[in-house]
Amino acid sequence: MKPRAYSGLLILACLLVMVGCATFGSQKVSPTPIDRASTEIPEDQLMDVGILVFESKELTSKAAQKEGTDPDIRKAESHFVPYHLKNALQQSSHWGAIQVIPAETNSVDLLVKGKIIESNGEHLVLEISVADATGISWFKKTYSSEANEYNYSGNQVGEKDAHQDLYNTIANDMAKFKKKLTAAEIKTIRTVSKLKFAKDFAPDAFGDHLTQNKRGHIKIKRLPADNDPMMDRLMKIREREYMYVDTLNQYYDGFYNEMWPSYENWRQLNLTERKAIKKIKREALTRQLIGALLVAGAIAAGSSDSNAARVIAPAMVIIGGQVIIRGWNISKEAEIHSAAIQELSESFGDEMQPVTMEFEGQQYELTGTAEEQFKRWKELLRQIYFAETGFTPSPASEEQNMNQDNNP
Amino acid sequence: MKSLILISVILAGIGFAACKTPPTPSASVPTPKQEIPETTEKRPSTPSESTESAKPGAQEKPKTSRTASPEASGSQAQDAKPTSQKDKTASGGAAQTSLAKADQKSSESRTTRPQTTQSKLEKARDDLRVSQATEKRIGAELEKLKQSGNASAEDIRNYEAYHERVQAMVAENRKIVEKMEAAQARHSAAPKGSQAATSGESEKRSDPSIPEEQTQDPVAALDRQLSASLGEFDAMLLKEMETIETESAVKMRDLAQEAAAAAKRLKEKGVDLGSDESESTDAESKQGEQGEEGQQGKAGQKDASGKEKGSQPKQGSDDDAVASRDQSKGGGSGPRGDRGSRYSKKDDDIVARQLREAAENETDPELKEKLWKEYEDYRRNTQ
């Protein structure tokens, strides 16, 4: 066989592989029902969960465009996604109070942190880490989900999202870990959470009730006395912090509900456009490959000894060229869909920007007020402690107090 | 077109007949929709009396609170009030002064009108139950409509929009119930906490030992400062909550208006919204009577529930604040007391009751007029 024929066959083989890659489909999302508690959990076994507002790397316009989203949308999602996770956890009934929190706090038994890696209506990729009050990390995983058009039917605000299986999986993983804990371990976590709060607000009184090892794990060194009046006061303050977080979550709830319809729309349209782009690109690539194949075949035929082959070779070149051009034209259509995605994202991002700003403004105002109050209470508790005990504050304590004043 | 109308009517009638039987969880509503209401109602609230009217100084939102571990701290002022799956228990740390006073006021209000507050909560729960039942039914009918293949795309869209509005109303009703339960739990806990704290304080003051008295004074003064500060914080949070609830009420009103408009569009297209004279209507009539006590937030919510869009094959379904806007009739500008009097409250379904309450509680005369007109139009069309 002539070298040119070998070349033609090699080209043909490569083209076939590329065609195969071009038509490879993406992985389906597997249905994941949520794991609900089968029996009511006793109150002293319930753990309060705090879900921190999700992180997201700062998206430049170019990066956002490439991902098929918008920086304003991503910012809004950093509040939306944790709130929907909260709803999913509530559905599981394994937990006590579940709240979205703007910053880390010692008021919760379990802290969930998340990061949005990708979100564009088609894909949702989240990195989730969960740790309890004793500092033990439950898990850190990356979850990804791919939606199709069927995932956008029958959705309900607060209950079913297009990527509900992803949320259910996270909730199930948390429940799975919790089920491994004994009642004593859960009690310990709750106690540590309470003592951490006490230490934060009244370090002079409760600063030495906990110890922390090199790995960052916290253990109880001693417990406060029964009927400790300082602990009573702290529990009253803790209630106020709970109420403050409740109020914040009302704002989150309003923001979430307001965002839902447009967000759902945007994701669904984005998915449609992205699917269209993929289909078009596959089609374009296929045509281009076929065209290239024809041209390669023509080259091989042209060098063949057969007269017939030499006759059809020019025709094959012409047809192949036309097919390639057509493939190129089709791929131009994909640019139209890309532009549509960009326009959709910009439009939705512009819509969400004032909503997010208003929500963050409300949150900031409330948080600022609350933090001022917390500072005041810490100072009052300090004064009460020294008045009750008759102790005088140590230099270290004074310095710590000054640091707290300067660094709220 | 006529055949389409006829088929829609037949389907609505079948759906109505099906819905006359007690609803079962296996009705043709997707599972997630059903499970959620059951989940949120899973943890019973403690049957203590409380009131959402005792707002001043009261703590309404103990959602994240829980009891202390007794072996850890032995804190006294902690109450266990699991109200919903969101709430754990409330620690009864009522602020000494203003909060205690507010709690006393709420206690008094509870003492004088215990039935009202409890009945309001029951009414809210009934509302939620009925709206959930209606939502299920509408979902089932929507599915039937889609599967029949005879409905036009526009009808289906309208129906879906209507369904969405009903779902939104269910969500709002659920939130209201949760808030009321939380408020009830808080108020039932707070007096105990305040009483315990008060007795503790009095014991301290009665200590005859001079050195202890001397030390108690500055401590007592600081405690008073702390309590006052806690009370201020409570008031600030309550104000925030009220703002949020007002916005929610406005939203519910908008939802009800949209739902009513959607129902009207469907009626104009000849889709029979049907009527369900079963439990939902009866429950709503009862609720209609209770609802006469009137709460503005509730009124707004009822308004919102009246704004169902989409089709409602069941005419008497309670969540449907379907008030077809019949511009020619009904309502003139009769005196407030006369509006709606020609229609018996007992015959009001949930939609009509919500429209009536909204109209009675509305302060804006123009909006009040519109609401009365909607109510009358709705009653006329459903009779």
List the helices and strands and how they pair.
The complex is a heterodimer of chains A (408) and B (383).
Chain A: H1 3-22, E1 49-52, E2 55-56, H2 61-67, H3 71-92, E3 98-101, E4 110-119, E5 123-132, E6 137-146, H4 164-180, H5 183-201, H6 203-206, E7 210-212, E8 218-220, H7 229-302, H8 307-389, H9 395-406
Parallel strand pairs in A: 1-3, 1-4, 2-4
Antiparallel strand pairs in A: 4-5, 5-6, 7-8
Chain B: H1 2-20, H2 31-40, H3 98-112, H4 114-148, H5 153-205, H6 210-268, H7 279-290, H8 296-305, H9 350-361, H10 365-382
Helix pairs in contact in B: 1-4, 3-4, 3-5, 4-5, 4-7, 5-6, 6-8, 7-9, 8-9, 9-10
Task: Give an overview of the whole structure.
The complex is a heterodimer of chains A (408) and B (383). Chain A has 408 residues and is α/β, with parallel strands linked by helices. Helices cover 63% and strands 11% of the residues of chain A. Chain A is built from 9 helices and 8 strands. In chain A, strands 1, 2, 3, 4, 5 and 6 form a 6-stranded mixed sheet that branches. Chain A has a two-stranded antiparallel sheet with strand order 7-8. In chain A, α1 (3-22) runs antiparallel to α7 (229-302) and α3 packs across α7. The radius of gyration of chain A is 30 Å and the shape is elongated. Chain B has helices at residues 2-20, 31-40, 98-112, 114-148, 153-205, 210-268, 279-290, 296-305, 350-361, 365-382. The longest helix of chain B is centred in the middle third of the chain and has 59 residues, at 210-268. Residues 20-115, 189-210 and 275-337 of chain B have low confidence and may be disordered. Classes of the chains: A alpha/beta (408), B mainly alpha (383). At the A-B interface, α5, α7 and α8 of A face α2, α5 and α6 of B.
